[in-house]
Amino acid sequence: MDETMELIQSAHAGDKEARDRLVSENMGLIWSVVRRFLGRGHEPEDLFQIGSIGLIKAIDKFDMSFDVRFSTYAIPMITGEIKRFLRDDGMIKISRSLKEMATKARAEKEKLGVSLGREPTLDELAGALQVEPTELAAAMESGAEVESLYKTIYHGDGNAIYLIDKLEDGREEDEGVLNKIVITRLLKELAPQEQRLIVMRYYMDKTQTQVAEELGISQVQVSRLEKKILQSMRRRL
């Protein structure tokens, strides 16, 4: 077994140093792919950060039984990650600062996931990047892939349920309108306290009681305020 395979094996066993070393030793692969995509309106460093995510995924997903070199497997993964970024980017025009923050957030999310052994929370990610959770949530969702309203999300018994059905269904308490992409587009129009409430409820998955404690108001007030905010957001849709 060569050194690269030994490092991959160690990385799969949870050895962070082995994983970091693999990333460091294969940076040349990332740059070799990045050069193919220069001149498309993005800084090389931004593309490198996206490519790094592809490399990390390649390390994590590489099957030791594959009869291929690691570099042969990694290059398509890196290329795919960059292509996905370029494809999704530009569907909704957003500011360069948000794009840059979203790029940094993707890379930092991968790193934190390894060190924590789980997916980091919005607060943890915001702390690592030294930005406000609301600002980070907007940046991350600004780069989300736009879904068709008529995408089938369930199909059974001959009846299809489409994404638009969930957005229009007003009977459920939480309501499908709380699709995070929609929330992000409307967050900036809310007052600071209202923004904080929505972020805690729908990005941080906190209960109304937990939100009430943080805002210094009662759970009943949180419930009423939340309902009022959602009604306002629906009207603006």
UniProtKB/TrEMBL annotation:
InterPro entries: Cro/C1-type_HTH, RNA_pol_sigma-70_dom, RNA_pol_sigma-B/F/G, RNA_pol_sigma-F, RNA_pol_sigma70, RNA_pol_sigma70_r2, RNA_pol_sigma70_r4, RNA_pol_sigma_r2. It comes from the Bacteria. GO terms for biological process: DNA-templated transcription initiation; sporulation resulting in formation of a cellular spore. GO terms for molecular function: DNA binding; sigma factor activity. The keyword Metal-binding does not apply. Residues 207-227 form the HTH cro/C1-type domain. The keyword Kinase does not apply. Keywords: DNA-binding, Sigma factor, Sporulation, Transcription, Transcription regulation. Sigma factors are initiation factors that promote the attachment of RNA polymerase to specific initiation sites and are then released. Belongs to the sigma-70 factor family. NCBIfam families: PRK05572.1, SigBFG, sigma70-ECF, spore_sigF. This is RNA polymerase sigma factor. It comes from Qiania dongpingensis.
